[in-house]
Amino acid sequence: MKNPEPGYVYILTNPSFREDWVKIGKSSRPVDVRSKELDNTAVPLPFEIYATMKTAKYNEVEKLVHKTIDRLTDLRIRQNREFFNVPPQVALDIFRDIAITIDDAEVTIYEDNKPVVDAKNEEEKTSTKHEPKRARFKFSMCGIKIGEFVTFDPIGIQVKVATDDSVEYNGRIYKLSPFTGTFLPEEMRNQSGAYQGAKYFSYNGKTLTTLRQENEKK
Q1: What is the sign of the dihedral through the CA atoms of 171, 177, 178 and 183?
Q2: For 193-207, what is each residue's pLDDT tens digit?
């Protein structure tokens, strides 16, 4: 039986929209073709490609991304549309989480509608096969309990630990990496948009990365 042809799930932004509005859809054709099709008189400015995921399971992945965002809170701008009130960095983090579970998934991020190197993906590709994959960060690795507070060091704000791997701020739940991508000052951002969130948070004066390393040595 012939394997299904791969397609794309995409994150699009638009300069005429709010910064935390995105369109998340699917296409069996290259996304630059699809984004041009969406450029019509109903939208003042053309859409811009933020990221894509290429996979043969693009139909299922699109539904899963929508469902994941809907579970976070009521972020869909209109229930019958593909527009969401969520920062593109958060949507990208969801892409990456899903991509880990799919063998053929390829996540690509874009700048000026052109693909750029995804530092996070490159890091995973270049790691040696003999090196075990490091588990995702959890607050329990540092002895930090749900309900305690950690500090987002770049701007000095405290956020509440909501679950073992997420924080709450202004009534919203964030994983550490997308929180960093959303609130990191412009001058501290990198080109790839990929961040190791634990490096940017501290607890009792020590970064979460340092606390994790100390506990692992014990």
Answers
A1: positive
A2: 667 889 999 999 999
CA quadruple 132, 178, 165, 203: dihedral, nearest 10: 100
The Cα 203–Cα 149 span in angstroms is: 8
How far is Cα 144 from Cα 189, in angstroms, rounded to an integer?
A: 27
**Does residue 74 surpass a pLDDT of 60?**
no
- Answer whether 161's CB lies under 8 Å from 150's CB: yes
Whether 127 shows a pLDDT value over 60: the answer reads no
Q: Helix H segments across the chain?
A: 31-37, 58-72, 88-99, 119-126, 176-183, 208-217
* Terminal C-alpha separation, the chain: 52
| Weakest-pLDDT range from 8-12, 71-75, 152-156 | 71-75
Asked if 92 and 68 count as a contact pair (C-beta separation under 8 A), the reply is: no
Helix (H, G, I), strand (E, B) or coil at 51: strand
Helix (H) or strand (E) holding 181: helix 176-183
Read off the tokens for 57: 């399971």
Q: Cα–Cα distance between 35 and 27 in angstroms, integer? A: 10
CB-based contacts of 133, cutoff 8 Å, min separation 6? 124, 127
Rg (CA), the chain: 18
- Model pTM? 0.53
Cα separation, 93 vs 121, whole angstroms: 12
Contact 148/161 with Cβ under 8 angstroms?
yes
